[in-house]
Amino acid sequence: MARKKSNKTNKSAIKVARRLLERGLEHTCRHTPLHTTRSRLCRIEWHLRKVLETLGYNKGDEVYQRTPKRVAKAYILELFSGLDYGRFPRCSKFPIIIGINTRRRIRDIPFTSMCEHHLLPFTGTITIGYKPRKYVIGLSKIPRVAQFFACRPQMQERLTCQILEALRAITHSKEAGIKIDAQHTCVCARGIKSDNVTTTYQLKHLSPNGLAMLFDK
């Protein structure tokens, strides 16, 4: 399903983008599109037709006629929509209640991202935990933030750091951690063709109790 059209960049998005840039974790590409969505769709579609021509497809073939448009829409509206901060989820914050300052965890958030080296998918699950300091956000917002950064050409290591730093920027949390388990198509479908799972971690000031919260079943 296509995502909503870009809206005016919200305050959380600006704060997150600034934090990632300061820490050298941001993608180097332009995050404010130079062209309209329609223009970008047409440009990508045109280039994909050239790729198919180079591969030997006949211009009258159904694949040549329809596939470039489908792929262009998937890139702009879904798979790479996280490159546009106008699509960053709105994260309403709520002050924590005095005396209620428990850690929060969401386990096994499913995700799909695209390897930036081969533009092939990698899929897996994300577990995120943090201890609120000033604010909490709705539990549904955490998977939305994770999905936003997954919808980019990515490296798993960068994805891990971006999600965690975004969460810390929004909630002002110091104690936080993230674990991502993923299987990479660029490894299992080509090269050595191994189906091993890659795990990455990023931890910030986690106490023993915080580590247990994040990794215990």
UniProtKB/TrEMBL annotation:
GO BP, one annotated term: tetrahydrobiopterin biosynthetic process
Keyword Hydrolase: yes
One GO location term (cellular component): cytoplasm
Top-level EC class: hydrolase
Pfam family, one: GTP_cyclohydroI
Keywords per UniProt: Hydrolase
GO MF terms held by the record: GTP binding; GTP cyclohydrolase I activity; zinc ion binding
EC number, as in UniProt: 3.5.4.16
Presence of the UniProt keyword Acetylation in the record: no
Domain GTP cyclohydrolase I intervals: 45-200
Pathway the protein contributes to: Cofactor biosynthesis; 7,8-dihydroneopterin triphosphate biosynthesis; 7,8-dihydroneopterin triphosphate from GTP: step 1/1
Family, similarity comment: Belongs to the GTP cyclohydrolase I family.
UniProt protein name: GTP cyclohydrolase 1
Native species: Gregarina niphandrodes
